[in-house]
Every structure is written in C-alpha cells, then in structure tokens.
Amino acid sequence: MKKVTIQDIAKELNISFSTVARALNDHPAISEATKKLVREAAQKLNYRQNKLASSLRSGHSYTIGIMVPSLGVSFFSSVVHGIEKIMNENGYSILLYQSNESYESEKKGIETFLNSRVAGIIASVAKETTQYEHFFEIQKRNIPLLFFDRVAEGLQVPAVTIDDYKGGFLATEHLIRQGYKRIVHITAGQTIGIFKERLRGYVDALQLYGLPVDKSLILYGDFSLDFGRQCVQELYQKKVAFDAVFALEDFTAMGVLQQLLDYKVRVPEEVGVIGFANESFGALVTPGLSSIDQQTVPMGEAAAELFLKMLRSEDLYNNLPKHIVLDPHLIVRGSTERLASS
Amino acid sequence: MKKVTIQDIAKELNISFSTVARALNDHPAISEATKKLVREAAQKLNYRQNKLASSLRSGHSYTIGIMVPSLGVSFFSSVVHGIEKIMNENGYSILLYQSNESYESEKKGIETFLNSRVAGIIASVAKETTQYEHFFEIQKRNIPLLFFDRVAEGLQVPAVTIDDYKGGFLATEHLIRQGYKRIVHITAGQTIGIFKERLRGYVDALQLYGLPVDKSLILYGDFSLDFGRQCVQELYQKKVAFDAVFALEDFTAMGVLQQLLDYKVRVPEEVGVIGFANESFGALVTPGLSSIDQQTVPMGEAAAELFLKMLRSEDLYNNLPKHIVLDPHLIVRGSTERLASS
DNA sequence: TTGAAAGCGCTAACAC
DNA sequence: GTGTTAGCGCTTTCAA
Predict the structure, then answer these.
(1) pLDDT-based confidence at A342, cuts 50/70/90?
(2) Domain tally for chain A?
(3) A chain contacts of residue B47, beta-carbon cutoff 8 Å
(4) DSSP characters over A201-214
C-alpha cells in the first residue's frame, strides 16, 4: 500500500496541498464545499495524517510519558489505568516506560521521553533512585512534570500522593485502640519519602497515646513477602516481645502473617497485623488482612486532571507547584479485629 | 532553554552538520577523533536527538503500539509488563492504549497508532469487538500485527495464546486423580472461545477416565466471587451431590471456597476446589487455591520475541502466521491436595 | 573521511 | 478562500 500524503489528495482534486491540510484540520477559512470534497478524497485514498510530521512542524506532540517502577505491581498498573483513560479522552497518547526500580533504566526512559518530545511526563520514582538530575532536566526544558505516589525530594514538582503520615498514624492508632501495646513497625531504608512518612505517623500515634517509642520495635530493611517472614523470625530469635505488627506494605504484612501462623501464633488474638496498600488479596486471605487503602483510582484521576491543567498553563514557572494529598482509608479486617468495635 | 540541534553542534565545532549527524549515529566512516569531539560538544550543549525528525526522515519510528482491554485487569498488566521489558531492551518505545472493552475506543486507538507510524502493533481484542476492519487495515499497510490471548477470529494473524483446552483437561484430570468423582464445572455463557475450550477439556478428561458427564454438574452463567458463592448455594439447595468444583477462573473459585468454608465443609477432604488463572491471591489464602497458571510472563515474552522476528522479517506476507500456544501449568495447593502425591 | 544538498510530510506566515 | 513558500531537525544520497 503506497503511502498517501496530503499531496496525493491535492493532486486528486487539483487544489493546493495547503488547502487540503487546512480542510483536514477544519480551518475556519475553508469553505464547507472544499472541506467535504477533501474529506471524501481522504477517505477514498485511505489517507492517514502523519503525526511525526505534524508534531515536528508544529512543536506539539500530544504525547505524554508515563514512568512507573513496574506494571507488575497492581498499585501502579491501576493508577496508570486511570491516567491513560483520562489523558486519552483529552486527546493525548501515552508513551509507557517501566524503570523496574532501576535508576539507570529510569534515566534512559526519561531520555527517550525527551527525545520523543513528549508534551509532559508523569512519573513515580524508582526505589534505587537517589539522584534527580534527570528529573531536573525535564524542568529545565520547561516540560510539565508531575509525580505521583513516590516523589523526588528537593525538587519543586507538582505531585499527587496520599497522606502517608496520616496512613501510618491511622494504622497505628487502630492497633492501639484494639489494645495492642508493643507494636512493631517494619519500614524500608529511608531513601523513599513515603516510608519515612509512614514511620513518622507511627511514632506520633504512639506518642499521642502515651506509648513509648521503642527502637528495637522498628525494623529497617526492605519490602517483600520474604522480608516479612524474616522479620518475624528475627524478632523471635532476639526474643523481642511484641503484640502487633504494622508493615510498610501488604506483601510484607502477608509474610508476617504467614510466619506468625506457621509459629502457631493466633492472629489477631495474640498478635495483630496491618499492612498498607489494600492489595486485592487482603480481602481473600484468612484472617483478612487489615490495611490502609491508597485510593488508586482517585489518584490516577487526580494526577491526570492536575496534569492537564499544567499542560494548559502558560507560565509553568510562575505557577507554584501544587501538591494534592489524598486521604488514606483504614480498612479493618480479621487480622486486627479483636475487639467488637475499634 | 533553547532547543539545541545538530546545527548548533556543527557551528560550535566548525564542521558540517551532516558530519555531526553521522558522528552521533556512530557511522563507521567518521574518524574516532571527530566522533569524540562531537560527543563532547553534544554533552556540553545538552543536545537531545529529535526522534520526531529522525523517524520522519528515516521512516523508522522504533515505537510499537500495545492495545489491551484494561490495565486494571492483572492478567493484561502482567503481560504488558513482560512485553514492555523485552521491547525496551531491544530499543523500542511503547505507545499504550486501553480499549476498555469498547469497539469504538479500540478503533480509535488503532488509528492513533497508524497516525503515529508505529513499527508494529500488539493487541488483545476487546470483548465488544466483532468487526475487524481496523485490524485488517493494519495488515493492508504491511505493519506487523500480533494478537495475544484474545484473537480476532478469521484473520490470518500471528498470535500467542495458552491452550485452554489443555488447561481444562489438566484441572479436571488432577481432581480425578485426587479421587474426586462428582466434579462440578462452572463456566460462562459460551460466547467467549477460551471458556468453551476449558469446558471441552473438562468433558474430555471425564470421558477419558471413564466418568459420566452429568449435565446437572455443569453450571452456566457468569464469573465473579459472588457467582461462585451463588453456585454453591444452589447446589446445596437443589441437593446436587458433588465432591469437587472446577471453576472457570480464580475469583469464582474463591467464592466457591469461601461459601464451602462458611458451610463448614472441609476443603480439600470433603470437597476439592480448583480455579484458573493463578491469580496472586491463590498462594496467600488458606487453604491455598489450586489453579491453572496462564503463563503471563512467558506469554509477554513469547509475544515480544515473536514480534521482534516479525519486525525483522523482510516479507511479512510470505511468512505464514505463526500461532504460539503455550502450555498451561497445573498449580497444586491445599484446596485439592488430599492425597500425598497426585 | 567529510561536505553539500535534497527532502521526509506537515504547519503557518504571507500573499493575493 | 486559496495558493506560495519556508522551514521543523533530521537521514541519506552524491561528490569530492
């Protein structure tokens, strides 16, 4: 199939190709008659506009880059699902890139976005990333940049997150109200801001309720099912007394839960367990895993809406970056429910 | 920040811009000395190649379009995860589009892909779609097209799917070998081909092992957790005797499992339950839910690998379309394991 | 080993 | 209303 261009349509109709271009773009100065003719000819010849050419010439690509750690994580695929939907409805295409938590990969992806002349970039930062020049360069080029969930600290960039502090607070408060007193918190290395915030919420809740903050109950490390199991094993080895665990995210919490059950510890009677993220499995396991819901769909929508505003705003620089903070929701299930009401 | 082009680099070094272009593309005819100079100048000026221009000129976009029903479904996001990874490693960018199961939306997305001059398209067809001209047009333009999981019937297009017949057979055979005799199969209305195949596998396994095919044990309807519960309720109401359930997918199986446990039926001792899809929660629930793994990661990888071959092949037309059928894997967990070995 | 020049398909300023 | 013209930033002959 020969490539059809506006020149071919022009030849067909014996008019100039710029008239064709204008007709196809519904330019007001073109008569309805010619527009109709052009559209029919385009249809007949099976013409498709070349976005590469029009973007190159006009400087508008109507494409945005989305960078996430991994689509294999339901939280991210769910947010991308929401973003794609709204951006599409507004005429934008999505270039997708997964960092797989790697800094190098993230850098490469941002570079590809820049080379592709995207109209803007929405990103959630990789676990490994501690330097942010690649994000800074986006700003230098005056390209709209928006973070969701995982934010690069120190950069003045609009973002949509949930209130992780509040989430940490809610989870801990719930455990306290259920009568748990020695509450372990599993958290990751402190490079990722959201985990720091959850920790801060944990500490503040303890203090507000007059419980001591015991450093031996705060476990730093990683997050994964295995790490959760490992933490419980260590606590038992070191004979640390505890009666509840608040894990930074659900898979880790699930590991904790499994290891406790393996040790024949009764959950929630002896030990309570709560996670973070409200992954779908939490409702299906036994006992149900209490968690903090991260509002993935509202987050995707809020991110897309805010981003559209950024794309439309003339002076990105002068508009101070907005930070939308969504409220996390406490989800109580069997793993922490040992009192009739919380 | 002013846009930097190869012209700027050329001016900086007092050489022609075509030499710069060649140097940046590592053209063999350029001396190492100039290459080095050019690369340094590019770095210094913060040059970024304009992919729009190079793609327009060269006719190669190194971008592929991926069309899926929804990233909100873990099966699809998981496959996209795999495809993106491999295509990225091979230097391709991903344009992503969700049909949200709508025919119109799918058509629009394919059009966008065509306008963006993608090098190829990987798609899984929307539930609503029954006409396939938009896919046919991709082929007319000699652009590589590949389906995964959901195939447009009647088109000669390479595809990657799993063997759903075999999956149904494996699940049923496993139950039989575990000594279950009256095996219920829950299936959906027979419009979707994959469910028909699973049913066929179920029937054939029964017959091969000399068990009767009892119509009262085949339940037609829908798929969801609630539907699974409903099925069990009905079976009890109608006093249908059964000792195992093979559900068309995991959420339905989970509903069955929950309802059985609510009825104080012992699983797997009294009744065995197996699902299909191997959703992540299956390993986390108690008892673990046996299932048929759909090989999402291999499917993504196989799709990407086959697609790369298509992209490289000179004569798409003459190479007969391949159909890769992946083997489903039986995953045995607590919900069906009542004998020491299967 | 490098330079000159054409042109990918389109948009948009400037004519008339 | 429509045509003419000049590029957008690159790749790729053809020459030297």
Answers:
(1) very low
(2) 3
(3) none
(4) HHHHHHHHTT----
Say which nucleotide is closest to residue B51, CA to C1' distance. D10
Among A88-97, A174-183, B237-246, B280-289, the range scoring the smallest mean pLDDT is: B280-289
Q: What is the mean pLDDT of residues A53-60?
A: 96
- Confidence check: pLDDT of A204 > 50: yes
> In what order do the strands lie in the sheet containing B218-221?
B218-221, B183-188, B244-247, B272-274
Using a CB–CB cutoff of 8 Å, tell me whether A319 touches chain B.
no
- Any idea of the CA torsion for B221, B224, B230, B236, to the nearest 10 degrees? 90
What is the bridge-based pairing of β-strands B323-326 and B159-162? parallel
CB contact set of A196 (below 8 Å; sequence gap of 6+) = A187, A190
Give A280's contacts in chain B (Cβ within 8 Å).
281
Q: What is the CATH number of the domain that holds A10?
A: 1.10.260.40
Q: What is the pLDDT of residues A226-274, one digit of tens each?
A: 999 999 999 999 999 999 999 999 999 999 999 999 999 999 999 999 9
In a shared domain, residues B112 and B221: no
Report the mean per-residue pLDDT for chain B.
93
User: Which nucleotide across the nucleic acid strands is nearest to B29, CA versus C1'?
Assistant: C1
Q: Name the residue with the least CA to C1' distance from nucleotide C6.
A: B57
Nucleic strand D contacts from chain B, 61-90, CB < 7 Å: none
Q: Are residues B251 and B279 in the same domain?
A: yes
